[in-house]
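User: I'm putting together a teaching handout on how multi-component assemblies are represented. Below are the sequence lines for each component of a complex, exactly as they appear in our records. Could you produce the 3D structure of the whole assembly as structure tokens, so the students can see both representations side by side? Please keep the chain order the same as the input.
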Amino acid sequence: DAGITQSPRHKVTETGTPVTLRCHQTENHRYMYWYRQDPGHGLRLIHYSYGVKDTDKGEVSDGYSVSRSKTEDFLLTLESATSSQTSVYFCAISEEARGYTFGSGTRLTVV
Amino acid sequence: RKEVEQDPGPFNVPEGATVAFNCTYSNSASQSFFWYRQDCRKEPKLLMSVYSSGNEDGRFTAQLNRASQYISLLIRDSKLSDSATYLCVVNRVDTGRRALTFGSGTRLQVQP
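Assistant: Of course. Below is the structure of the complete assembly, with chains in the same order as your input.
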């Protein structure tokens, strides 16, 4: 197995509540990513990290924040969840210029 | 214009057929190219990297045309298990080679 896990796998939350998704890796890869996948849009980059405490925004970062205090963990936080953030969230890891390995995804529903 | 564009399909082909997918990318500075496969309600998985000289992995052949900025994937002797969505992927130039941008995918349905 690739050594990347996401939690939770499924979550239903109410509008306006904060939500944190966790990505954990055992591969010691430098790069970690959060994407969301929606019908008609494909996978879109939210944030990514290139080292402990080093993060950068992707194309759809509004309403999301991230933290990486340890190599193995990359957290994605929705500060105040909205219905437009209902999606499937994928975490991925990589070494530079190589392909990604994805986690199994988190299905988030905001009601 | 999207950075990576693919025909969404679906491509419905019989078992044993040869099928080809193309995708185009908008940024001529892109340097890394991949094909991923995604099964329904699963995570994407790397199928193969795409090299300038073209490369083959069993029944799968990938080619890159930098002048025209398109990437192709050819699947020979299609199997039922090849049914999936195929994602064309290039590096995001604004991140150097740190992050990837994905096409929306082409769906393939192989029929008995």
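A couple of points students might notice: Residues 30 and 51 of chain A are 6 Å apart (CA to CA). Chain A touches chain B at residues 31, 33, 35, 40-43, 45, 48, 50, 56, 58, 90, 96-97, 99-105 (CB under 8 Å).
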